[in-house]
Amino acid sequence: MESRIGRMCIERGLKMTGQRRVIARVLSEAADHPDVEELYRRAATLDSRISVATVYRTVRLLEEKGILERRDFGGGRARYEATEEGDHYHLIDVDTGKVVEFEDAEHAALMHRIAERLGFDLVSHRLELFARRKPAPVAADDGAGLQAADSKNGLRR
């Protein structure tokens, strides 16, 4: 069975070699936004014949065909994700590089209103927030040396 990105490739008339299928599968299964080097590492574990040059060529081709979108979240590395319908945004933790995807209907509506007010029909928009996690509130020690638990995620401090 073809991966989601593999199906997009076929729909756009790309020849699907075995190595392209592996790269498309890795990209489809990625929960993050891998750069080419990370994509290569993951693909090479599935097919040791894949070279980093093949990954670079494939990523460039998929980007040209509108299957992948290049993202620059800082750090000097381009990262990639599948082109998708609908609006979603990115919050980038500037300390860890972690990317959190989210949706926000209010933001989308605001962008449409702004374009309309300025005499335009909005055709596309992008939002990338760069942020630093707020420090957790310091809990008072109860004198017995017990640590407070973070009620949101159960982490102990």
The description of the largest β-sheet is: 3 strands, mixed
Task: Please write the string of helix (H) and strand (E) elements.
Answer: HHHHEEEEHE
Any idea what the radius of gyration is?
21 Å
The low-pLDDT segments are 145-157
Number of helices: 5
Count the E strands. Answer: 5
Across the major sheet, the strand order is 4-3-5
> What gross morphology would you assign?
globular
Helical amount: 25-40%
Structural category: alpha+beta
Percentage beta strand: 5-15%
Mean pLDDT, nearest integer? 78
Report the end-to-end length measured between terminal Cα atoms: 45 Å
Considering the chains and any ligands shown, give keywords for the structure:
disordered C terminus, 5 helices, 3-stranded mixed β-sheet, 157 residues, 15% strand, alpha+beta, two-stranded antiparallel ribbon, single chain
Question: Would you write up a description of this structure?
Answer:
By secondary structure, the protein is of the alpha+beta class. 36% of the residues lie in helices and 15% in strands. The chain has helices at 4-11, 18-29, 36-46, 52-64, 105-117; strands at 68-72, 78-82, 89-93, 99-102, 128-131. The strands form two sheets. It has a three-stranded mixed β-sheet, with no helix packed on it. α1 (4-11) packs across α2 and α2 crosses α3 (36-46). It is globular, with a radius of gyration of 21 Å.
Task: Describe the structure concisely for a colleague.
This protein has five helices and five strands. It is α+β, with helices and mostly antiparallel strands and 157 residues long.
SSE topology:
Layout: H1 4-11, H2 18-29, H3 36-46, H4 52-64, E1 68-72, E2 78-82, E3 89-93, E4 99-102, H5 105-117, E5 128-131
